[in-house]
Amino acid sequence: MEIERKIIPLLGIINTYFIMEQKKATEILKTAILLEKRGKAFYSTVAKQTQSKAVKEIFSTLAEEEDAHIEFLSRQFSHYEKNKQFLKNELKPKADETEVNRILSEDLKKEIGAADYEAAAISAAIEFENRAIETYSKRAEEADDINEKEMYQMLADWERTHHKLLHRMNEELKEDIWFDNKFWPF
Whole-prediction pTM value? Predict the structure, then answer.
């Protein structure tokens, strides 16, 4: 009787913890899906509106990758809602240094001016990626489930490749405009 009196409240606390973690996991998945949908919408819009073939290619690729994230996260969400556990991660990032170097060609830089619509879109896209990286990295650190932890770490790493590409584009464009306008201190 004495043991039951001590254990039953502890079981209630443990049960409450698991319910809160499940709710938190569900909310993070919803936030992640929303982030990816917003990113896809933004990237798709830029791809449609740009006059630059290179920028169209970059933003179309980013939109496709965000779509892959949406599909993956939606499957995770459905599985988690039914089973209260995460699926093993099967997605792998696609971008690599070769792709980044190909995209950051002289043709791209010739097509974009640092003050143009495309340059502004690149800057806004960097902010999208920063938010996704922060959200995914934080959840990867907090997660207890190994599949959840691996999933969010993989997504954070993938978004870092997007960020790296966009940041390099932004820096190269900035250097070009500085050079063209003689902003260099030497």
Answer: 0.75
Instruction: Give me the architecture of the 2-180 domain, per CATH.
Output: Up-down Bundle (1.20)
Per-position b or e across 160-177, b if 16+ CB within 10 A of its CB: bbbbebbbebbeebeeee
List the single range of 15-19, 102-106, 145-149 with lowest mean pLDDT.
15-19
Nearest Cα to 70, choosing from 158, 165, 160, 143?
A: 158
How would residue 116 be classed by pLDDT, with cut points 50, 70 and 90?
confident
Q: Which tokens in the block code for residue 105?
A: 């060609």
Burial class (CB in 10 A: 0-12, 13-18, 19+), 83: exposed
CA distance 158 to 93: 5
